[in-house]
Specification:
Layout lengths: L1 E3 L3 E5 L8 E5 H13 L12
Antiparallel strand pairs: 1-2, 2-3
């Protein structure tokens, strides 16, 4: 994950750094992380780095 200068967030698989990336706006990334943190039903099923 990297915060880009144009207010976007770049996400890629760290095991394949030259592979494809997902790019989110800052508001999309904030909504995703807030939803992830609020969802306790899947807390044990996702990697710790999420």
């Amino acid at each position: 994950m990297a915060f880009l200068p144009n207010n976007h967030v770049d996400v890629h698989d760290s095991k394949n750094p030259s592979g494809p990336t997902l790019v989110f706006t800052q508001s999309e990334w904030s909504a995703f992380t807030a939803a992830r943190l609020a969802d306790t039903s899947t807390a044990d099923s996702l990697p710790v780095s999420w």
